[in-house]
Records
---
Amino acid sequence: MHELPLSCAACGFPVPEVVVIGGLRRTACPSCHHSQRIDVEPFDYQGFAMGGPGRTPERLSAQAGFVTPHLADGARALEIGCAAGDLAQELRRRKTFALYHGVEFSPARDMAATRMDRVFTRPLQDLLASGEIEAGGYDLVLSSHCLEHLSVPSDVVAAMAQAMTPDALLFLETPNRSGHARLPFDDNRSHIHFFGVSSLTRLLARHGLETIAAETGARHDARYSDSLRVLARRPAPLRADPTLLSSHPRLAGVDRIVVWGAGRMVEEMLAYYLDPARIAFFVDKDAAKQGGVRLGAPVRAPEALEAGADWTVLINSLEFEAPIRAEIETRFGGRVDRIVAIAELLE
Ligand SMILES: [Zn+2]
């Protein structure tokens, strides 16, 4: 038996409450609702594959289906506690991978080695320290039903973050609290940490990772029918990108755009995400706006469309898109080649 520190491993709260279950102490964090064992019994992991059970086709399909919508082809993946490599096999059916590496201590690694490019048998922290695993080398890091077994999950999350490229994706799955919606607590002696949505997301946030998708009620098996699944990544820097809307295929081949609507979205949206060099002029029916300048381009009355032809008009309005489109077609149909709505550029 050994003792772990009292302070919350998820959020860092210094003095959580202490409760005793089955004669063993564990914490209850009032700040993030994390619970962790204080008294930890020894557990032999040599013959035990973490994440081993729950290998039904339905579960593997659900896990892969959670990850792949956010994943590009050609990723370099690293799975911590990959067991026999079932998830790797399922993901490889759906996406191409430049490489897929695993870490597994149990004998399941032999099967995993037939399904992956390489399987390591030492902790990730050691592999990074020795250079066997390259820092910043992976586009996707995964770990399913591992984190709850570790004394200091923060250390392995730090190592995972270190292994990730700046815009890599992290997939984690753990039991959601007890892991069963009807059981208030779980006394699986190999589980040291009992995560919930708030504690897992706060642990990730402390390592610079923002949770972009989360799901509870994910079925692992009958005992852990309520698992928690998250995808996290480093938040994008708050930087304007004038190509973001301008490069949309709906505007392809168009040099100069007429923007219909010089309202609030000019400053709130177009100023950051539409290249102002592409704007010929604005039109607006509000006489108070006519004669003004937005993003360096003049604001004119709609009649300005009568000069010239083959205009591409961007409807810069969400709520009046339909009436503006009807008005353009009725009044300026012969002059306008293409009508694009801001809503289309945001799809
Ligand atoms: Zn906490």
---
Amino acid sequence: IALPASGQGGALVLLDGVTPPPNPYGCSHSVPWFTARLGGALLELSGSRRDMPLADCLAAAITRTADAHRDTCDLSHVRTPQATVVVVRWDADRVEHLVLSDSSLLIEAPDGMVTPVLDSRLDELPHSVRALGAAARALPRGSAERRAAGAEYGRAVEALRNAEGGFFTAAADPDVARRAVTGTTPRAEVRALAALSDGATRWVEIFREGDWTESFALL
Ligand SMILES: [Zn+2]
């Protein structure tokens, strides 16, 4: 999104819903149901409560969404509906941002320089867990051993979901908002923004097709 030269204010929200497990996850609602409510509340609060820091807006939006199904669902389930988050809010003077989990924000300066804002906790999992992933990838593709090792790695990662020392998504606990990466940039230093889900960041991070500046130019 290109910021209007008029200095007009605005906000954007990107949520990437986490795919639910095939087995029951304590909730009768879908991930789209969850992201529609969380995203709606987050955009509304970001726009209407300019006195509230974005982390507080996220916490309030999580609480409001949890309240909508707290009486019918088990919100303590580790796979309760959840999402990764990017929020940006701007006015005539400044651009505020918040990034949680593996969605990312690119900030383009007037001179074309692109600064990525990343929550790298998924890349900083304990060595023992990353070693499981590397071991799985070293096994022959399509083999039963690779599938078994991959499943073991998956379980180790899942054990770190919204757990101390692991990685965090917006689920039902408003306290997660204080774990988000937040910051402020002077409006004069921002020409345009791009919020990317992890599917879009693969172009840079997995496929190594180019850097963040080239990714932004492609967008
Ligand atoms: Zn529910």
---
Amino acid sequence: MPMLTYKRLPYLKAYIHVLAIMPLVYLGLAIDADALGGDPVQAVIHFLGKGALNLLLATLVISPLAKRYKEGLLISTRRVVGLYCFFYASLHLVAFAWLDLGWDIALLLKELVKRPYIWLGMIAFIILLLLALTSPMWVHRKMKRNWQKLHNFIYLAAILTPVHYYLSVKSGWIEPIIYALLVVFLLSQRRKVVIKLLSNIYCFFKKT
Ligand code: HEM
């Protein structure tokens, strides 16, 4: 019999809210205490980027866990975890655009040429944005089968982000490689869908 019941679900969701907000409280306190080391701007960008990536992996782990332990209701926590992933990614982007670039568009264009990995982050961010916008139940109902097709793009975001991470570091590539291996493992559980998605994207670009 499943342990997660309709009665327990709100507690689990409350726990998820606390777990997702706590790192932001920690970050706020660390900024306030000037405890982010010699380059606080980079530290904030890294902290939020890693937070977004961790939450992306957490979103991907929910379905296999629900299946493995026959906890169907667990699936309904995917939306809140995914939205927190989008929230962290938005803060990561704002921290970069504001603290690093001072909202200077010309500088952003220069950075896009100098640091091509930012393109990958941007594509991942656009995917997360579309998924967040279409996450309400009424949009799901309206989009019918197209909703699932769109939401499968989370797998592309999950592939792009560790590459974005790997290319952004000058040293210390072990962590991005570990993230990439985790993504490969999580995606290997949905290989059919992932292969179909990647071949559709390939065909799309071949045609255009
Ligand atoms: C428009 C979108 C994005 C932009 C402009 C962007 C920008 C950046 C930049 C500039 C860095 C490197 C900072 C540095 O070392 O100088 C970075 C690192 C990173 N980003 Fe992004 N990013 C974007 C989207 C994303 C998304 C969607 C995720 C995750 C879901 C993500 C996760 C990461 C991670 C994990 C790192 C490495 C952090 C570390 O070194 O500890 N980024 N990003």
